[in-house]
Amino acid sequence: MFDAIRDVVRKSSIHVCIVNCGGCNGCDVECVALLSPRYDLEQFGIYVHNNPREADVLLLTGAVTEQWKDNLKRIYDKAPEPKIAVAVGNCPISGDVFAQEGGHVNAPASNFIPVAAEIPGCPPRPSEILEAILAVGPQAIADRGREQQ
Amino acid sequence: MIVPIGPIHPALKEPIRLKLQTEGERVVKAEIEYGYVHRGIEKIIEGKTWQKGIYLSERVCGICSYEHTQTFAETIEQISDVDVPVRAQFLRVIANELDRIQSHLLGNSTFFKSMDHETLFMHVLELREYAMDSIELLTGNRVNMGWNVVGGVRMDADERHFNKILKNLDIIEEGFERTRQLFAEGPALALRCKGIGVMTKKEAIKGRAVGPIGRASGITKDFRNGHYTYDDYFDFKVITRTEGDNYARTLTRFDEIPESISILRQAIENIPKGEVRTPVDLKSGYAMRQNEAPRGEVTYMIETNGSLIKNISIRTPSIANMDSCARYMIRDVPTVADAVATYATSDPCVACAERVAITNEAGITSIKKFDEVI
Q1: Contact predicate B333/B196, CB 8 Å
Q2: Average pLDDT across chain A, whole number
Q3: Mutate which: B12, B16, B37, vs A, most A CBs within 10 A
Q4: Shortest Cα distance, chain A CAs vs residue B348, angstroms
Q5: Using CA atoms, how far apart are residues A106 and B4, in angstroms rounded to an integer?
Q6: Which of B 84-123 lie inside 8 A of A, CB atoms?
Q7: Which residue of B has its CA nearest to A34?
Q8: Which positions of chain B have pLDDT values less than 70?
Q9: A65-92 residue pLDDT tens
Q10: Which of B67, B187, B346, B362 places its Cα 20 to 30 Å from the Cα of B134?
């Protein structure tokens, strides 16, 4: 009974933190566009805080650069359980164009932290990002919450 | 006491660390630590063809991605001695000004967000979506447009596109008037903006501030003056102010938007018929070009050996603006909250700024200070 109530609450309020671990900024801009009245993220109960300490969903953008190799895990550990990480754009999935000779990137991000969902695109459209958060976010968070117990 | 802000912080879009030295609430000194998004783009481009280079140059920065490709293409055209068809030049101007409108609106909305003024933040972001729609209609993509190729633009546009863009411009202009008035004449906002984060003209020159940030302090340089298309076909006014505070910087960005809209209307009205792309016979050589990106001058220095790029060096506006922000604007602001707002008015784009990384023997990566690079 208590679990059921907690699941309902968790599903309807998702706090998001955008973690740019070394991208071109394009995906972050599309995440900011999600806040605009046209997409209106908050009507789905999603709040963008950019504060890892109260985040349920970490939106990862960017190929993992040298400075982020250790810091990414530290940021992930700071977020309270249950939490999931969603990779936005090609960079955290494969490194995109930066993963070639001369580039200083350590993609994919799943080498460092568990990634629950991936949204390819360079950058993906805001509607795609929104759809992905809504598709995996609530259920994954509730599942993970039960695992933790 | 030193207050560290970032790299992940509610007020920041991108990873960067601000170290604020405070005395009580007053900030006396600020330092910026770079290095979180260094990807090594210049090194990757070396030894590649221009087709690959222009794709990578677009990913230097996601917000002003357009101007990077245009400058890259124009540098290669200058090396190869090619004249771009006039219709392609006009199409470049249309994409450029649309990009400028969306970038300025985003910059201002970030500033309003950092001041916790949600109403204006939402108003400005709503207007920005119409500019993004126009960009998508014209080029097919919202952010990384891939619009420029060496010798022209990728494809042609016709009346249907232009009519829709004109309609979107009307919407932007209508909403913009009200939004600007809300900011310029709002008493509470003005209290928090006027006289905060002042950078004088002398300091702006010393800190090499460029773009709207420099023009808010009285620098009159705009690299659109001196660009062949703008010089030959377009009339526009360079917006300058003299106060150099947060209010002036935000209003400079706001006031450049009607100028961009007027340039767009001129371009759509006078666009000539003809080719949009000309075949290019690549030559070897070296060239440097400067263009006005939304944040200031973008410089590309490219050396080619005919087919491949031997060496490329990119200078972006953000590094100069962020550095002069840390040195002169934040130096004496009354509170930490104002320091964050001041940082947001310098329209920082960290992804642009990361050019040089030094790895020492222990494998610790650090970024060179601005003075050492210059």
Answers
A1: yes
A2: 84
A3: B37
A4: 11
A5: 26
A6: 106, 109-110, 121-122
A7: B125
A8: 11, 355-374
A9: 888 888 888 888 888 878 888 899 999 9
A10: B346
Query: Could you give the CA distance from residue B294 to residue B305 in angstroms, rounded to a whole number?
Result: 31
Interface contact B128, partner A, CB < 8 A: yes
Chain A segment 6-65 residues within 8 A of B by beta carbon are 17-30, 32-33, 35-38, 49-52, 62-63, 65
What pLDDT digit, counting tens, does each position of B125-172 carry? 999 999 999 999 999 888 888 899 999 999 999 899 999 999 999 999
ipTM value, please give it. Answer: 0.89
Give the phi and the psi of residue B128 in degrees, each rounded to 5. Answer: -65, -30
Mean pLDDT in residue range A98-115: 86
Sheet of strand B2-5, all strands in order from the earlier edge strand to the far edge: B2-5, B17-23, B26-33
Chain A CB contacts of B350 below 8 Å: 25
Here the tokens at position B348 are 């920082």
Find, in chain A, the residue whose alpha carbon is nearest to that of B351: A24
Candidates A37, A96, A33, A36; CA nearest to A61 is A96
Q: How many other β-carbons are positioned within 10 Å of the β-carbon of residue B371? A: 7
